[in-house]
Amino acid sequence: MxxxxxxxxxxxxxxxxxxxxxxxxxxxxxEFARFNASIAFDKRLAAQDxxxxxxxxxxxxxxxxxxxxxxxxxxxxxxxVLVDIENDRLAFRDDLEDIHIHVEEALKxxxxxxxxxxxxxxxxxxxxxxxxxxxxxxxxQEVSHELLNLMTALTDRSSETMDVLMPGYTHLQRxxxxxxxxxxxxxxxxxxxxxxxxxxxxxRVDEMPLGSAALAGTTFPVNRETVxxxxxxxxxxxxxxxxxxxxxxxxxxxxxxxxVMMHLSRLSEELxxxxxxxxxxxxxxxxxxxxxxxxxxxxxxxxxxxxxxxxGRVFGDLMSLLTTLKALPLTYNKDLxxxxxxxxxxIDTVKGCIKIMTGIIRGVEFDKERMxxxxxxxxxxxxxxxxxxxxxxxxxxxxxxxxxxxxxDEYAGEARTNKRGRLPSPEMMAEARCHPxxxxxxxxxxxxxxxxxxxxxxxxxxxxxxxxSKRKRKG
Length: 475
Ligand code: ARG
Prior knowledge:
Blueprint: H1 30-36, H2 39-42, H3 46-62, H4 68-86, H5 99-111, H6 124-160, E1 165-170, E2 173-179, H7 180-205, H8 224-231, H9 240-245, H10 248-274, E3 282-283, H11 302-325, H12 340-363, E4 365-366, H13 368-374, H14 382-391, H15 396-411, H16 426-431, H17 441-461
Antiparallel strand pairs: 1-2, 3-4
Bound molecules: arginine.
Arginine binds next to helix 6.
């Protein structure tokens, strides 16, 4: 196809291209052409678009809707178009609106008028719905794979830091001693649920929309099951009107991204706090920090701050997608073209953030001495002392107020003493919580064992979580 972009004059072009040829007498206003075009962002769907078209045309050939020769010619042409796109040999033009028309025009350059038969029994409405589903299936695998890497880093760091005790917090006040490894494994659980959420959501992306055509279905004797099988879908969309206008799967995916970001923002915030001189619990890796342009002493936790900041951006993507869909009448409306940028932004952002966080977790140095020393704060023993009285028969509520008053007196007026007297050691306190899910070594060991098992089962299944071509597609 022509490499030179069409010349842009101020006046509407007289020539009507592609889909405008019949119905329109005049060309498009150039400013509207730019406004209307989605090619700048939906070119990202090129691989999925061509994969979908190949399955469609194969089916057209198999069902005798096109001759076998025509179908084969179109399929070969599409393969060549994909190679051109992958090698940046296709010039994108606003007057060709979107990736679907670009591919069809490029095909025409390659094989001539037979290209016009590709769109038999199809509309851009079911086509774009298919492309987006294929895309979400692909990127969902990629994010899942990145999550497993992050979970692996958390598990590795947990097994290394089993001996490190630190204060656990509620209300950001020192509460009870916990193992650092227990704290890190709490994040493993969050990302494990996120991973499962992406997997569960893929079951709802797995509905093949093609055959719905514009909205009502098609008059051609298509075989939708064949297309589904060729593309690796396990079922077809049950209602053509729903299939062309449903974007629930995109919303769900961006919600799942938002949940990951929310978890990452909590972890970022803790690392930022822990790396302050006030806490002094960790040193963030130089590789993920910046300096100040004026204050020579500064080492700023920029990576963590950016992850925390980008969380708002992904929440915005979710809200933008939901709002686009709100009150939209059936079936396809051009509003739906606005679904893509928030989706693409969410995926780019969440993938980048998980990768950066994995590097931070691998490189962060924990200050074992500072953490252990902070655990010597006698107030951290309060619950254990109250539990002790309770074991002697004092009702817990009473024991609670006895110890509460003792702590209050100790804290009144004079500086807090760090005299521990007969207080249990932090290690003893941690070990006393030895049931499943507690912070004792045996419990954390068990969490790590279960984590490793989870990772080894699932690492393999998403190891090929790369791009479209790697998905299991027949044909
Ligand atoms: N670029 C369009 C989109 O992203 C493709 C579908 C266009 N369909 C239509 N009837 N104009 O939604």
